[in-house]
Design brief:
Chain B: It holds the Pfam family Transpeptidase. Chain B: Keywords: Carboxypeptidase, Cell inner membrane, Cell membrane, Cell shape, Cell wall biogenesis/degradation, Hydrolase, Membrane, Peptidoglycan synthesis, Protease, Transmembrane, Transmembrane helix. Chain B: It is found in: Cell membrane; Membrane. The complex is a heterodimer of chains A (402) and B (646). Chain A is mainly α and 402 residues long. Chain A is built from 15 helices and 3 strands. The longest helix of chain A is centred in the C-terminal third of the chain and has 34 residues. Chain B is 41% helix and 17% strand. In chain B, the strands form 6 sheets. In chain B, strands 2, 3, 4, 5, 10 and 17 form a 6-stranded mixed sheet that branches. In chain B, a hairpin with a 5-residue loop joins β8 and β9. In chain B, α15 crosses α17 and α16 crosses α22. Chain B starts with a helix and ends with a helix. The relative contact order of chain B is 0.10. Classes of the chains: A mainly alpha (402), B alpha+beta (646). Chains A and B meet through α9, α12, α13 and α14 of A and α1 and α2 of B.
């Protein structure tokens, strides 16, 4: 019986251990630490350290960016410790924090609207002392927690009506609207998508899901025509043009995608070796240390390296989803699954964008890309997943808002 | 419709499995795309990556050097640090320039000009052409810029070869100088080219290292010196910064050819120093080979100042300087030859048969012709003179008489046989032919008849007659070699000058011997006008020569009567030019020389000592004057043994 591994406990065992798990909170911190899923945690650490190495590779020739890997390493250590701390937090605490965190995020989003710092054509950042934070990143976790908390509250008395899901939709759309207005199309989409996954898992009826899909497809053109800003529309156009193999202006909007694809393709099967990528080492791909870091991995470690990375993510997320399904409480299940969806959409949007399958939406690759806020969100997501795993046998009762 | 908790649990597990499966599909799609890009299209992208970072850059050829007769460099190259900016690669050229100016000193005025140039090049879509920001960097500036350049996209800091003239002013008027090709230069250089060739040449000249000869031999031998451009294979990053260079012999530029001149740079230096700051010119010829050994015009400018563009203030100073350093006196300065011309007049008279050498003329300092009176320079007159004593004492009255008897056209014809009236290019620019007047010229240009009185002025080298120091040296060499054909040349190995030719119109050797005897008398016999300058100080060889004075203004009758002719009493710029022509050794001529000291007043007093000291040095170093280039040049073996180039 492997307590720490990816398998966790079987359903039957969990049931028999329910009595003891209720007393987890009273156990010593050391014993709790021992019971953490260390294989999972070490995989996270290994992938994050790979990210540091790739960051070094992408920026070491550039005097302005050469030191960034050290900064990122410091952040990684801080976030990693935080993740372990969050992982040991009892689920009941997470539940109590859910609504206040959601409310706080909404306040921050409004503040961004009122006094945010503009960067890259959008008002996304909030200056807090020396650091600039991006509240839209926190919103992903806050919405997940709020949704889980909401369903924990509603599903407990077992009312599976459509009206219930409309409340959940409101929880998603309120921050989504604020983020869309910044404008940050990518984050909005990720937020709505991972929120949608939570609603789906909470038991939304198949008929409605079908209707949403049909409606979604039908609304593509009107959204493109009337909702998107011109620069967003241009990105979609560029994306479509390159997807269908049209030659786009090499120095125009698609330069980044074009150069990224050259770097990836030039990597071949084995890659050119660490620090040997000719595209990566010579600054050909813009934003290579942030959103386009996958191109460095792909060029220097080839198809083997990039596939290994995706497989690593798949193992992390698969185990997490499996663990979520083991959870007894609705809060545990949905919060954990929501966190999985959040990280999964980060990855899909980022990789899809870099590989030229999705429009450029400006989404970092979790654990790998340079950037503090995304690292914080990702690590918090994993902290939540581990916490749900640790307390999967805990039955929770929701009383009131807190 | 409500469900039991167990059903809901199952529903969650089922839906989680569906979500997981959907995720698995998406993952498979992403890996499939990676497979497509990295495995299937690998070759295409690898080729694109190669093409991305390897660039061919036009590489300028290294310009050929100009060397003196001993292979010592007169024009070569010097390595100097240079900063250039490629406008299209700089994120913000104005900011970048400001940044550079904060690191090294760049005058505001220059900074403004560069900013302007950068803007212009962008407007003309020529943003890929580097614009030079600063050159001739000090070592400290070069090191500092090198450290910071990496942070400034589009900025290149490199060592460049700059044209350099190690002898500075010594050869300014012979070599001229190089400069960045202007629009006018490009039009001139591409005149007879096809459009494609012209385009290549224009592109090449945009390179900051490229220079074109603007004056002198640099301009004359442009094609010989220039070479052919090649390419450099460069590995660059996305900002165009060069990471490394891949050597490729096949693409390398073809350097220009070296050019040897016949000049002896030591002799040139000694000659310039001998002028002791006075303005003037001197030309030294090798009587046997026709080599120009020295071609002095002083004061001169420093051609190094022109290589990177001279400031308008500095140029104005040169242009407005009352000593005219830009003026190439030796081959472009036209002076009345004065009495140095008397050998030509005497030769013409003897050829025409109007006098015999022994015929006597009486000089009492006056010569009446028509209703005018001409004067001899010697107050009181020379008394009775024949050809020999007339040359020796430079008797004007004698020459008035024989000139009148000979006639203007005959004198002009003989003058041309000595090389007067012709622009001898010899690989230089800015030369002038001067003027040998005759009846036809007067009729054509002035629309007037020739007056007999003008012939008298002609006879003593005054009037319309204009000659250059180079022509005077040629005349002297022809006399010294007793009329043998004489081919002047200054380019030892290099492009041939189409305009220059042999000076081979026949001159009677017997007449030339008489001239030589007269010139020997000037420096070595009692009554000679330059008696003190005849001894070369070498314990044997003497020089033979002829003095001359070129009037800068007419002497008024009042002055002549009152005797006011002394130089110190009149302004410098109104004083006469002093001339002297000579050859040495007198008994076996090797060197011929002409010297003009501007406003030096008396040929015997100022010009003759200069000529004597130059000849002294020339003879002292005579044994090693064999040019080194003739040994290495591809001459036939039989000629190599003889050594001297012909």
């Amino acid at each position: 019986m492997n307590r720490e591994g990816f398998t966790g406990f079987s359903r039957g065992e969990a049931r028999t251990r329910t009595a003891t798990s209720l007393s987890f909170e009273n156990q010593g911190v050391l014993e709790k630490l021992m019971r953490l899923p260390w294989g999972f945690i070490l995989l996270i650490a290994a992938m994050a350290l790979t990210g540091i190495a790739m960051l070094y590779s992408s920026a070491h020739t550039n005097p302005i960016e050469a030191h960034l890997w050290k900064l990122q390493l410091v952040r990684l250590v801080i976030c990693f410790v935080m993740m372990i701390g969050l992982a040991m937090l009892p689920l009941s605490w997470w539940m109590r924090l859910a609504f206040p965190a959601y409310a706080g995020t909404l306040v921050l989003l409004v503040l961004v609207e009122l006094m945010g710092v503009t960067g890259g054509g959008a008002q996304r950042w909030l200056q807090v002392g020396p650091v600039a934070v991006q509240p839209s990143e926190f919103a992903k976790l806050a919405v997940t927690l709020a949704l889980a908390r909401y369903y924990q509250m509603i599903l407990q008395p077992q009312t599976g009506r459509i009206l219930v899901h409309l409340g959940a939709l409101a929880i998603i759309l309120l921050p989504a609207a604020l983020i869309f207005k910044q404008p940050d199309f990518g984050t909005t989409l990720a937020l709505v998508a991972s929120g949608g996954v939570v609603i789906f898992l909470a038991g939304l009826s198949v008929r409605i899901i079908t209707a949403v899909i049909v409606g979604g497809v039908a609304s593509v053109w009107p959204v493109y025509q009337f909702v998107l800003a011109p620069y967003q529309r241009e990105r979609v156009d560029t994306f479509l043009a390159q997807l269908f193999g049209e030659s786009t202006n090499a120095l125009g909007e698609s330069y980044q995608i074009e150069q990224g694809k050259i770097a990836i393709g030039a990597g071949g099967f084995n890659g050119r070796g660490f620090l040997q990528g000719i595209q990566s080492q010579q600054d050909y791909v813009p934003e290579q240390h942030t959103d386009f870091i996958l191109t460095v991995i792909a060029e220097e470690f080839g198809f083997l390296g990039s596939t290994a990375l995706l497989v690593g993510f798949a193992v992390l997320l698969g185990w997490s989803l499996y663990s979520a399904a083991r959870s007894v409480s609705w809060f545990g299940r949905l919060a954990s699954a929501g966190a999985v969806a959040t990280v999964a959409f980060y990855i899909v949007f980022n990789v899809g964008m870099v590989l030229g399958l999705l429009p450029v939406v400006g989404m970092p690759l979790p654990l790998i890309s340079y950037g503090g806020t995304a690292m914080l969100t990702t690590m918090a997501c994993f902290g939540l997943i581990i916490a749900a795993h640790m307390h999967r046998d805990e039955k929770l009762t929701a009383r009131g808002i807190f | 419709m409500s469900k039991k908790p167990a059903d809901l649990d199952h529903a969650f597990t089922r839906r989680a499995a569906i979500a997981g499966a959907a995720g698995g599909l998406v993952w498979a799609g992403l890996i499939g795309r990676l497979f497509q890009l990295q495995i299937l299209d690998q070759e295409r992208y690898q080729a694109q990556a190669e093409a991305n970072h390897i660039k061919l850059q036009l590489a300028p050829p290294q310009r050929g050097r100009i060397l003196d007769r001993f292979g010592r460099p007169l024009a070569s190259h010097r390595r100097a640090g240079r900063i250039s900016i490629i406008p299209e690669q700089a994120d913000n050229p104005e900011e970048t320039l400001a940044r550079i100016a904060s690191l090294i000193e760049v005058p505001d005025q220059r900074l403004e000009r560069i900013a302007n140039e950068v803007r212009m090049s962008r407007r003309r879509n020529a943003g890929f052409v580097p614009v030079t920001v600063a050159h001739e960097l000090t070592y400290e500036d070069f090191a500092r810029m090198n450290v910071h350049a990496a942070e400034m996209p589009g900025v290149n800091v490199e060592m460049a070869l700059t044209r350099s003239y190690p002898r500075g002013r010594d050869f300014a008027h012979v070599l001229g100088y190089v400069a960045r090709a202007s629009q006018d230069d490009l039009v001139r250089l591409t005149d007879d080219m096809s459009d494609k060739e012209a385009e290549t040449l224009k592109t090449m000249f945009r390179h900051p290292d490229m220079r074109t000869g603007r004056q002198g031999m640099e301009r004359f031998a442009e094609e010989w010196l220039r070479g052919k451009p090649g390419y450099r294979k460069l590995v660059t990053n996305a900002h165009g910064r060069v990471i490394e260079e891949i050597p490729d012999e096949r693409l390398a530029p073809t350097p220009g050819r070296d050019l040897f001149v016949t000049i002896d740079s030591d002799l040139q230096r000694v000659a310039i120093e001998r002028f002791e700051g006075e303005s003037g010119a001197a030309v030294v010829l090798d009587v046997e080979s026709g080599d120009v050994l020295a071609m002095v015009s002083t004061p001169a400018f420093d051609p190094n100042d022109f290589v990177n563009g001279i400031s308008s203030a500095d140029y104005a100073e040169l242009r407005d300087n009352n000593r005219s350093p830009l003026y190439p006196r030796a081959h472009g300065g036209v002076y009345p030859p004065g009495s140095t011309f008397k050998m030509v007049v005497a030769t013409a008279a003897l050829e025409a048969g109007v006098i015999k050498p022994t015929d006597r003329v009486h000089c009492n300092s006056y010569y009446h012709f028509g209703n005018r009176t001409w004067h001899c320079w010697k107050r009181g007159g020379h008394g009775s003179v024949n050809l020999h004593t007339a040359i020796k004492g430079s008797c004007d009255v004698y020459f008035y008489e024989i000139a009148r008897r000979t006639g203007v056209d005959k004198i002009a014809e003989v003058a041309r046989k000595f090389g007067f009236g012709e622009d001898w290019v010899l690989g230089m620019t800015g030369g002038r032919g001067g003027l040998v007047p005759d009846r036809e010229w007067k009729q054509r240009v002035r629309k007037e008849n020739w007056y007999e009185g003008e012939t008298l002025n002609f006879g003593i080298g005054q009037g319309q007659l204009g000659t250059t120091p180079l022509q005077l040296a040629l005349m002297t060499a022809r006399i010294a070699s007793e009329g043998k054909p004489f081919t002047p040349r200054m380019i030892g190995i290099g492009p041939n000058s189409a305009d220059d030719h042999s000076l081979d119109a026949p001159l009677d050797a017997e007449i030339m011997k008489l001239m030589k005897a007269g010139m020997y008398g000037v420096t070595s016999e009692g009554g000679g006008t330059a008696y003190r300058s005849g001894d070369l100080g070498l314990g044997g060889p003497r020089l033979a020569g002829k003095t001359g004075t070129a009037q800068v203004r007419r002497i008024t009758r009042e002055e002549r009567l009152s005797g006011v002719r002394s130089g110190s009493e009149i302004a410098r710029e109104l004083r006469d030019h002093a001339l002297f022509v000579a050859y040495a050794p007198a008994d076996n001529p090797k060197y011929a020389i002409s010297v003009v000291v501007e406003h030096g007043e008396g040929g015997s007093r100022t010009a003759a000592p200069v000529a004597r000291d130059i000849l002294h040095f020339a003879l002292k170093t005579d044994s090693r004057r064999k040019p080194t280039y003739s040994q290495s040049a591809s001459l036939p073996a039989s000629m190599k043994d003889e050594g001297e180039p012909t």
